[in-house]
Design goal:
heterodimer; A: 113 residues; mainly beta; six-stranded mixed sheet; 11 strands; 56% strand; globular; B: 118 residues; seven-stranded mixed sheet; four-stranded antiparallel sheet
């Protein structure tokens, strides 16, 4: 069966440390993967996109890797801040000719001051 | 830029009521919009793809007669939950793709509508 798995347990880290979130998928062949941030009671906000032929993308303190062999993406936030506390969602896309995204259930990140 | 406004943000109503939710792209045109449903601590589940000027494409298991979608202009899609019942209570979120977007570009999301059916 098809699955997208993100850690269901919250990730609790100290301010200044690097947060690493994992997105694993099974029986999908995405052409690209996107990461979004979602705050409570709000809609998701786009952060980064990585294509299947890219190994790594960076944007300021954010870094995403994509390993199509392992079927895994890692999302890193360096020098984390309490304001980074939120739920982070990965989304797979490009499995067909549509623009549809398939979302993981998200990982909640808590950054302690 | 790329702001999506969703209204209302919260609705509480009695069982049997029909509820309309609006999704507007404020500063861009969107031929394609999406409607999602999200349960607490769960992922966004795509309900349907809304296409301006044509019928919406519903995902498997979503009742099209229950969840009516109208995309009458390039900046507005509406979702009507007909004869809502307590099991329809959820967080409904829309997103929009700016026209001219490549398929791998991000979706722009509204802030959701919390629907509570008593």
């Amino acid at each position: 069966s098809q699955k997208i798995e993100q850690n269901s347990e919250a990730l609790n880290i100290q301010e200044g440390k690097t947060a690493t979130l994992t997105c694993n998928y099974t029986n999908y062949s995405p052409a690209y993967l996107q990461w979004y941030r979602q705050d409570p009671g709000r809609g998701p906000v786009f952060l980064l996109l990585i294509r299947e032929n890219e190994k790594e993308k960076r944007k300021e303190r954010l870094k995403v890797t994509f390993d199509t062999t392992l079927k895994q993406s890692l999302f890193h936030i360096t020098a984390s801040q309490p304001a980074d506390s939120a739920t982070y969602l990965c989304a797979l896309g490009g499995m067909d000719s549509s623009y549809k995204l398939i979302f993981g259930s998200g990982t909640r990140l808590l950054v302690r001051p | 830029g790329a702001v999506v406004s969703q209204h209302p943000s919260r609705v509480i109503c009695k069982s049997g009521t029909s509820v309309k939710i609006e999704c507007r792209s404020l500063d861009f045109q969107a031929t394609t919009m999406f409607w999602y449903r999200q349960f607490p601590k769960k992922s966004l589940m795509l309900m349907a793809t809304s296409n301006e000027g044509s019928k919406a494409t519903y995902e498997q298991g979503v009742e099209k007669d229950k969840f009516l979608i109208n995309h009458a202009s390039l900046t507005l899609s509406t979702l009507t939950v007909t004869s809502a019942h307590p099991e329809d209570s959820s967080f409904y979120i829309c997103s929009a793709l700016p026209d001219g977007t490549f398929s791998n570009q991000p979706q722009h999301f509204g802030d959701g509508t919390r629907l509570s059916i008593l």
